[in-house]
């Protein structure tokens, strides 16, 4: 049984120009909404990786993090916490890569 709902098919009416423009704008806005995760630009990533390769291994002191952050901000959005966590996570990524390469060489 249909429990009180009518069997009349739902009619979809075309949207007015104003309504379709509003919906298009909402779709564009929703696809532009920033994610919460920081994704460094290619230049920012290159800078961080070169610092890592030159020996900066653990998260630097706060003053150094602020200096790195201000440098990275020339190339896009960056915050001090992003720099701190990037260095911390890079150590973990390096350990994982090393373990994977050792496992595949056995």
UniProtKB/TrEMBL annotation:
| Main location (coarse class) | nucleus
Give yes or no: UniProt keyword DNA-binding.
yes
Gene Ontology molecular-function annotations: DNA binding; DNA-binding transcription factor activity
Q: Which UniProt keywords apply?
A: Developmental protein, DNA-binding, Homeobox, Nucleus, Transcription, Transcription regulation
Q: Which GO biological process entries does UniProt record here?
A: plant organ development
Alphabetical list of SUPFAM superfamilies matching this protein = Homeodomain-like (SSF46689)
Subcellular localization is given as: Nucleus
* Record-linked InterPro entries: HD, Homeodomain-like_sf, WUSCHEL-like
An annotated GO cellular component:
nucleus
Spell out the Pfam families in the cross-references. Answer: Homeodomain
Where would I find the Homeobox domain in this sequence? Answer: 36-96
- UniProt xrefs under Gene3D superfamilies: Homeodomain-like
Task: State the similarity comment.
Answer: Belongs to the WUS homeobox family.
* Name of the protein in its database record: Homeobox domain-containing protein
Identify the taxonomic lineage of the organism of origin.
Eukaryota, Viridiplantae, Streptophyta, Embryophyta, Tracheophyta
